[in-house]
Amino acid sequence: GRTCDVRSDGCDVIGVVGDGFLDSRSLRCHVERSDDTGRGRLRSALPATADFVSFREVECRVGQDVLIVDGNPDEITGNPVSTITVAISNDGHLNSDVIQVIIFDSYCQECNETGVCMAKED
């Protein structure tokens, strides 16, 4: 999976590279957020728009505000760590393979290239 730091990146645009995407009104991004609640994973669908780039790339846009789990990334509060899964469909129903993106706040968390995140000590 990939990682995205809300403090340094525009995590509201998720580029998906694949094959055979069509520039049509039926092109859809299916985006879901999964959060660890302490009692299990909570899944919720996120509103997203699909922007056709080429037959090999689509950009999915979600609102920056829906990525914040708790707090405000412009301040030094919050602990936004969540997993976003994205799939593309040309017809609104059949999905591509799912990609996973870890959304985190580098003020509170450290994440490595493999998507493993740990709370910072101080």
Task: Describe the fold and architecture.
This protein is mainly beta and 122 residues long. 0% of the residues lie in helices and 45% in strands. Strands 1-8-7-3-4 form a 5-stranded mixed β-sheet, with no helix packed on it. The chain has a 3-stranded antiparallel β-sheet with strand order 2-6-5, with no helix packed on it. It has a two-stranded antiparallel sheet with strand order 9-10. The model is unreliable at 71-79 (pLDDT under 50).
Ordered list of secondary-structure elements with their pairings:
Blueprint: E1 2-5, E2 13-17, E3 28-36, E4 41-46, E5 49-54, E6 57-61, E7 82-89, E8 99-104, E9 109-111, E10 117-119
Parallel strand pairs: 1-8
Antiparallel strand pairs: 2-6, 3-4, 3-7, 5-6, 7-8, 9-10
